[in-house]
UniProtKB/TrEMBL annotation:
Keyword Transmembrane helix: yes
Record key words, sorted: Membrane, Transmembrane, Transmembrane helix
One Pfam family, short name: YndJ
Organism in which the protein naturally occurs: Streptomyces zaomyceticus
Superkingdom of the organism of origin: Bacteria
Cited InterPro entries: YndJ-like
Transmembrane segment boundaries: 60-82, 91-109, 121-144, 156-174, 180-198, 210-232, 244-266
Comp. bias intervals (Pro residues): 275-286
Region described as Disordered: 272-299
Name of the protein: YndJ family protein
Length: 299
């Protein structure tokens, strides 16, 4: 696994996933808090697997991390049972919970040098960051934006980002044109995320740093998704386009640092500045009743 891809995936394992999970609100299924707090412990073997040569040891370490991603994916049906909701924002959140497990499975296969479903090892290696960033982080941010502003654009973003991610995955099994169709849907959804982010910058962010983080995440997203669309179109038509290495170095790195890191930092700052709701009023304390002196009736 290249140094670039390994560095991006390490960032996703150790910081992106736990930071994103801390931003989620709503019901907490059994085991949620334990899994969230212990996530860095599972990221350690996953990170080691990235940097060791392909071997039985790196495969075993990758499998430990994959089990953690599977446990996270199982939180999705448990959360659905508690919320009983498939509103667009919740669909995006459920997608975010499931997505890292696809990357975890691809990591195990890549470390074992096993061409899972016939895919070569380079594709498997790139599947790992794709489902940590496009699958997890982008879907999570779309869900957060939809909860903040439940308008048509927000609902479109919360549905099209998961749909586009799934279509890109299915396109791997069909042909380049199916993958291009998935890229079109995903690009449309991410463009909606960028517009919503700029609107949130204007309406919600008050300090300069948060506004800057939101602006960078939105503007970078416009550029990186055009690069992804260009690559998918070139693969389908044979038109000149950046090769896979340059696409990973531009689209992948830009999405990881420019969009994901800036967006999560901004949403964390927005959440920390959200006013705490006042405590419910306590019942008024009445003064204790005092005993009145008994009045003796004249005899």
């Amino acid at each position: 696994m290249s140094v670039l891809v390994g560095s991006v995936v390490t960032l996703g394992m150790f910081w992106v996933v736990p930071t994103g999970l801390a931003l989620l609100e709503g019901p907490r299924p059994p085991g949620w808090d334990l899994l969230r707090r212990s996530w860095p412990l599972f990221a350690v073997p996953g990170g080691l697997a990235l940097w060791l040569p392909r071997s039985g040891l790196s495969t075993a370490l990758a499998a430990v991390y994959a089990l953690a991603t599977l446990a996270l994916a199982l939180q999705a049906p448990a959360r659905l049972f508690l919320t009983r909701s498939l509103r667009p924002g919740e669909v995006a959140v459920l997608t975010a919970l499931v997505a890292p497990s696809v990357g975890g499975l691809a990591l195990v296969a890549e470390r074992a040098a096993f061409p899972l479903f016939g895919f070569d090892l380079d594709i498997l290696a790139l599947t790992v960051p794709h489902f940590h960033f496009a699958g997890f982080a982008a879907a999570l941010v779309a869900g957060l934006l939809c909860r903040a502003s439940d308008g048509p654009t927000a609902r479109f973003a919360a549905l099209s980002v998961p749909a586009g991610t799934l279509l890109v995955l299915l396109g791997y099994f069909v042909d380049d044109w199916a993958e291009f169709a998935g890229a079109v849907v995903l690009t449309a959804g991410m463009t909606a995320v960028a517009f919503l982010t700029l609107r949130e910058r204007r309406e919600t962010a008050t300090d300069r740093l948060t506004r800057g983080l939101l602006a960078v995440s939105a503007l970078v997203l416009f550029a990186t998704m055009l690069l992804a669309l260009s690559w998918a179109l070139g693969e389908a038509t044979g038109l000149p386009h950046l090769d896979l290495t340059w696409t990973a170095a531009t689209h992948g790195l830009g999405n990881a640092l420019g969009f994901t890191v800036c967006a999560l930092l901004a949403h964390r700052r927005l959440r920390s500045r959200r006013p705490t709701p006042p405590a419910p009023p306590t019942p008024a304390q009445h003064p204790p009743r005092t005993a009145h002196p008994r009045t003796e009736l004249p005899t």
